[in-house]
Every structure is written in C-alpha cells, then in structure tokens.
Design brief:
The complex is a heterodimer of chains A (about 200) and B (about 325). Helix content of chain A is about 40%, strand content about 15%. With about 200 residues, chain A is an alpha/beta fold. Chain A has one domain: Glycerol-3-phosphate (1)-acyltransferase. A 7-stranded mixed beta sheet of chain A has the order 1-7-6-2-5-3-4, sandwiched between helices. Chain B has about 325 residues and is an all-alpha fold. Chain B is about 75% helix and about 0% strand. Chain B contains 10 helices and no strands. Chain B starts with a helix and ends with a helix. Classes of the chains: A alpha/beta (about 200), B mainly alpha (about 325). At the A-B interface, loops of A face helix 3 and helix 4 of B.
Chain lengths: ~200, ~325
C-alpha cells in the first residue's frame, strides 16, 4: 500500500524506528501486539518495525474519535494503516470491543494500546481490561509485548510535529499464558512485560 | 595539474588505499582463529566497507557541485544532532526549541553558506540561536533543570550545526590563487582528519600499550596517537599540491587538524560517557553513529577554517 509505504519512509528518516526483537519471532502465528502509548505515531512505528510480509495481516486498533475525526484521518487510518476503529465512548449496552473480536476471529493479528489513551510518561500507566477480555476469548493467540522507546520525546501529547529523535521498537517474546488467572494479576503481568523491555 | 586532474588523483589514490584495505581485511578474516580476533577483523571489515560508502557519497556530491556538498553537510548535521538529542534527556518543554534547532537553524545555517553570507553565517548560532533558543524554551514555563536543558541544547547545536558547518564553509572562502578550487580544501580537511583517526586506530592496534586517557576513551593509546598522528601530519604535508599551501604550511595545518581532531574525539567521548552511552548511534556499520565519525571534524573544521581564512584569503 503506497500510503503506508510513504508514511513509513518519512518516519524512518525522522526517527529511525529500528526494531529490536527479544528473540526471532514466529510470524506464522496469530498475534496480539500490545504496547505503551505516547504519541500519534505509535501505530505507524510498530507497523514500520514489523517485516513487510508480516504487515499485511496486521490490523491496528485505533480510536474513532481521533482517527475517524475527518475524511483525511479516516482515509489514512483505514486505507493506509488498515486500522479497526473503535468507539471509546460507546452507547450503553453495546460492546466497545466487538469490532476487535470480529477481526481476531477472522484470523488477523492486531495492535492495541491497553492504556486506552496516550500518556506523557516513558513507562505505561494502568491497563484497561480490554486486553484481559481479548486474552480470555482467544487463548490460542500469542500476546506480544512491545515497548516504544523515545516516542514520547519525539512527539509529546499536545505537539503536532515529530522531532527527529531516534526511537527504538522493542518487541518481546509472547507472554506465557496461565489458565484462570485473575484480571488484575494478568493486567499487572502484561504491564510488567512492557516495563521489563524498557530496561 | 588542472582541478579535474587533482580530483582524479585524489579519489584514485583513496580508492587504491581502500582496495588494499579490503584485500588485507579478506586475508586477515581467513586467518583469524580466536574469537577475539574474529570479532576485531569483522569490525575492521565493516569499517572498510563503510569507508567505501562514505567516499562514494563524497565523490558523487562533488560531481553534483558545490550546492550538493552543502546539502550533504546539512544532512550530516541533522543526523548528528539527532544522535546528540536522542542521548540527551529533554522534556516536553524543550519541544519548540528543538523544533527550531532541527527545522529552522539547520536549513538556515546551510542556506547562508550556499548564498555566501559570511557575516551572518558566523553570527547566527553564537548570537541569535544562543539567545532565542532558551527564550523559546522559557515560554513553556518548565523551570525544572532549565539551565542544564538550555545548555545541553546549545552544546548540541554548536557542535552538530555550527562546528560541522565550518567544513563546507571552506567553499565560501576567497583564497589567493585558488579560485574555484575550494572543494579540494574541504576534501583535504576531511581526508587528514579521517586518515589521522584511521592511522591512530591502526598504530594503536599494532603497537598500543599505554592508554592516553583510559577513563575517557579506553581505545586511545599513546603509541596510536604519536604514530598515527605524526604519519597523518606527514601525509597531510605531502598533500600540499591540492591546497593553497606550500609543503611546510601544509604540514603545520595538518598538525593543527590532527591535534584538534584528537581533542575533539576525546571531548566527544567524555560527553558520550557522561550520557552513559558507548556509541552515539548505529547509523554507520562498524563505526557507530554519525557523531562517532564526525567528532574529530567538529573540532578541526572551525579552527582550520579560520586559520586558512586569516592567513590565506585575498
């Protein structure tokens, strides 16, 4: 897709986006990538860090209130980034995660930011329960932690132009899965997996 | 010799040197047995390959003309500053100041060289940027370690933009009996600096025993410094045919370049260490980052520029 290729080239020029894999990944398996969220470039940075053959099947999850705000952003996010848009403030009674479940059921890998919003810190804040519900519903899918280094410095919340600061995408090994793990314990473990990559 | 002939000789000689280095590297790689020597030789060969790349980029920039060389150095400044700021802790309050440094100061400084506006070229960063960068930062009202942050940004801008830009600024000098040949002087500077680095490395690896400043840079040895530095000075002296200098003048200029280059390497190494990093980056395989390759130029270029301007301009 030419839009994503063009965006990836610009990103590489500005912030490098080198991928550091903890160990060589098995990209044939379906994966849920989850990362700390600090800038509007995060999704694109992760896509840029993945090998081209792995990008095709990956759908990032993005907030409809930003990425669907106008026709331009909607075009970039859906045609360029292949994103699933979700409604962060749903009408009561509907399931926010339903569009994500559909995509995972269809066999796609996804990228999500479990904090649900951008933070201005180097380390992630508290995780929302979405990741837990996905993990529970799809026990056979790999859960892969990603630490995005320096992106909060390149384009902090509230700024609109990225600075050329070298950003590294640290991609960990899939998290071990335990049956009947409690929600809080699981979410803490998932957050720790990202924090560990930041060291 | 005409300008073209000098250039062909210069680049031809470098290509021969690199070819010899490549062959030696191949032979050594076959002979290496222990783990330590294998990794040293591998790094050596990566360095030689990177040199081929760098020489080709410079050669092409010469073919494309003076403006291409100026633009090339603009990008070198951009990548150098990118490495400097990446390792330097900054806060969101620095965003606008950094934006100005990257996207306004770099293009402006090199446009001033391209348009031969000498006075503003020397003043832009020491006067205007010096005052305006902290003024921009202060508007975000973040006073947490304000002095440190302002100082670090100014150091990055001085080293990566101001100092580096003095290399292509050689193109705007008006030298006696040297009209239209200034690009040769730029290559002379880059050649002597880099040759000195390479020879210090080679002499250090072959004869190095006593470290010069083990706490700052464990790889620099007295033997490397003296052997490599003196040979680079001598070779630099013999390159007088591509400069406006005679042999002795060229020898002295080369000595200044070598000494400043060495000091630059040392200071930049100390900065790197104070930011607790081993390399500035990973851009140039085998060498580390852009700044690992440019650290000696940063210090040698401004002094060489001003000595040449003072003693040899029309």
């Amino acid at each position: 897709m030419w839009i994503s290729n063009a965006l990836i080239s610009v990103l590489r020029f500005l912030i490098g986006v080198t991928a550091r894999w903890e160990s060589p990944p098995d990209l044939t398996r379906q994966r849920i990538y989850f990362a700390n969220h600090t800038s509007h470039m995060d999704t694109l940075a992760i896509i840029a860090a993945l090998p081209p053959e792995a990008r095709v099947n990956v759908k990032p999850v993005a907030a409809a209130d930003y990425w669907g705000k106008n026709r331009f952003l909607r075009y970039i996010s859906q045609k360029g980034l292949n994103a699933v848009l979700i409604d962060r403030n749903p009408t009561p009674g509907t399931n926010v995660l339903e569009p994500i479940f559909d995509v995972v059921r269809a066999g796609h890998s996804i990228i999500i930011f479990p904090e649900g919003t951008r933070s201005s810190q180097a380390l992630p804040g508290e995780f929302k329960s979405g990741l837990y519900r996905l993990a529970e519903a799809f026990p056979e899918v790999d859960l892969v932690p990603i630490y995005l280094e320096n992106l909060h410095r390149s384009m902090p919340k509230g700024k609109h132009v990225p600075l050329p600061i070298i950003c590294t995408i640290r991609i960990g090994d899939p998290m071990p899965r335990f049956v009947d793990e409690e929600k809080q314990v699981f979410l803490q473990r998932a957050r720790d997996a990202i924090v560990r990559l930041s060291a | 010799m005409t300008l073209e002939q000098k250039f062909l000789w210069f680049f031809g000689a470098i290509a021969c040197l690199l070819a010899v280095a490549s062959i030696i590297g191949r032979v050594l790689a076959k002979r290496a047995k222990t783990e330590g020597s294998i990794s040293t030789i591998e790094n050596l060969n990566q360095r030689v390959n990177a040199w081929w790349g760098m020489v080709i980029i410079f050669f092409v920039s010469y073919l494309l003309g003076g403006n291409a060389t100026v633009i090339l150095f603009g990008f070198i400044s951009l990548f150098a500053l990118r490495e400097f700021i990446t390792l330097t802790p900054t806060r969101p309050g620095d965003h606008n100041a950094l934006f100005s440094a990257f996207f306004i100061l770099i293009p402006l400084q090199y446009v001033l060289i391209g348009t031969h506006w000498y006075s503003l070229f020397t003043l832009l960063i020491p006067v205007y940027a010096f005052l305006l960068l902290p003024a921009i930062a202060v508007l975000s009202q973040d006073t947490d370690s304000f002095l440190e942050r302002a100082a670090k940004i100014q150091w990055g801008v001085m080293i990566c933009i101001y100092c580096i830009s003095h290399a292509p600024a050689l193109l705007l000098l008006d030298l006696q009996g040297f009209t239209g040949q200034n690009a040769l002087l730029l290559f002379y500077l880059v050649f002597v600096v880099q040759l000195s680095d390479v020879l210090q490395y080679v002499f250090g690896k072959l004869f190095g025993k006593h470290k010069v400043a083990p706490l700052v840079s464990p790889s620099k040895t007295v033997e490397g410094l003296v052997g490599g530095g003196l040979s680079a000075t001598l070779i630099g002296g013999c390159m007088f045919w591509m400069t406006p200098f005679n042999f002795w003048q060229s020898l002295l200029m080369s000595l200044v370049i070598v000494v400043m280059g060495f000091l630059g390497g040392l200071v930049m190494s100390a900065i790197k260490r104070s930011l607790s990093a081993k390399d500035w980056g990973t851009m140039i395989k085998g060498h580390g980052g852009m700044l690992d390759r440019m650290d000696s130029i940063c210090f040698a270029a401004p002094i060489f520029f001003h000595l040449t301007r003072y003693f040899f301009s029309v």
